[in-house]
Amino acid sequence: MESEINDSRWDKEDLKRLDEFEESRNLVLRATKQLFLDFCNHNLKGDERVLEIGSGTGFLRRTMPYEVKEWVQLEPQIAFLEEAKRRFPEGSYICGYAGEIPFPDESFDVVCGYGSCDVLINLNKDMKEAHRVLKKGGLFFHMLDLHPCDKPIIKDFEDRHNPIQEFGNYKSCSYLETESISYIPEDRLEEYDKLEEIISKDSYSERTEKKIHRFWKKYGEKINTHDYFDKKIIQALSDYNFNSIEKGKLTAGFKGKRTEQQREQEERYFVFFNDAGKYSLYPDSTMYNIFQLKFPAMLNPLPMLHESAYRTLNHVFPSLARKIEPSCLEVSSIRYVKARK
Asked: What secondary structure does DSSP assign to 204-220, as a single string?
C-alpha cells in the first residue's frame, strides 16, 4: 500500500547526507545491533504491528535484529522511500507525514522513530497523531544517535523573539562536530534591543562588533540540545496522556575482527565509539584497555602486546599481519525516550 503524495521538496544533498550518516553509523553497526536486540527483548514480544515515523532510507528496520508481525515505514520524502525499497525490497512503505498518519485509530502496537522526531517542527501535533494510532497499552519510543536537529530548536527561540547565535564546523559528516547554540534570556531582551538600536544608528565597525561580542559573552546562555529535545518530547507526550514516560541512554559493545570498511577507512584504529552523535576513533592501546575494562566480557589479557606486534609486522609483512590482527571494539551509545498509551 502506497500513498499518492508526491513530495518534491527533497534535495539530493539530503539523500547524500543520510548516506554520510549511515557510513559513520556502520563503524559501530554490530554494537548498535546488540543494543537494538537488548531493547527489543526488554520491551517487545515479537507479535507487534510497528509504525516507524520519518523512516528515511530505512536504517532502523534494516538494522533491527528482531522480527515483528509487521513493520510499516512512514516517510514524506519519496526519494528516501525509493532508496529504502532498493536496500530492503520486502519492507512495507507509506509516503506520508507524522502529523497526518494515514491509518485509523488504534492501528499499531508500537509507534517509533530513529533520529526523526528531533526534526519535527510541530512535535505536539505529531505526538497527538502517534497517540491516536497506538492501541491502548501500546509502546512509543524514539532513539537518537546524533545531536538533535537544530532547526526546530532555533525556530522555538525565534518564535519567542529570543536572539540566538549558532556555532559549528561542517565536516564530511556534520554531526561529528558538536554545534553550540546560545540565546539571550527574557530578562535581558530589553537591554539587548537597546544595544541593537544604538548599533543600528552607527556604521558597522570593529568597535560595535566588540560591543555585541561582550554582551553575548556576558549574558548569552548555551543550550544543551539533547536536554532541550528530551524536555520538549516528554512534555508533548505528557500533554497527550502517555504513561510511564522514561528517558535514558542505551549502551552496548561488540568485540571482533574489523570490517572491511573499518580497515580501509581507518587503518590505524581499533576502537570505534559513538556517544549519541559524537563519533570517536582511538588508535592507542591506553584507550583500548579502558574500553575493555568498561566492557569486561571483551577483556583480552594481552591487548597491548597483541596490538604492538600487529603494528610492527604490518609495516613489513602486511598479509601475515592480517592473520594476527587484534580484535576491534565497537561501542554504541544512543539516547532514548519511551512511553506507553
From this structure: P-HHHHHHHHHHHHHH-
Maximum alpha-carbon separation in the chain: 72
Report the distance separating Cα 192 and Cα 194, nearest Å.
5
> Residue 51 in contact with residue 103, Cβ under 8 Å?
yes
> Where exactly are the structural domains of the chain?
12-149+225-249, 170-223, 252-333
Q: Are 10 and 101 in contact (CB under 8 A)?
A: no
The CA distances from residue 90 to 70, 84, 93, 242, in Å, are: 11, 10, 9, 32
Q: How far is CA 302 from CA 146, 285, 294, 328, in A?
A: 34, 10, 16, 14
Per the DSSP assignment, residues forming a β-bridge with 164 are 183
pLDDT tens digits, one per residue of 108-155: 999 999 999 999 999 999 999 999 999 999 999 999 998 888 889 989
Identify how many contiguous H helices and E strands the chain contains and give both numbers. Answer: 13, 12
Mean pLDDT of the chain: 83
Q: Which CATH class is domain 12-149+225-249?
A: alpha beta
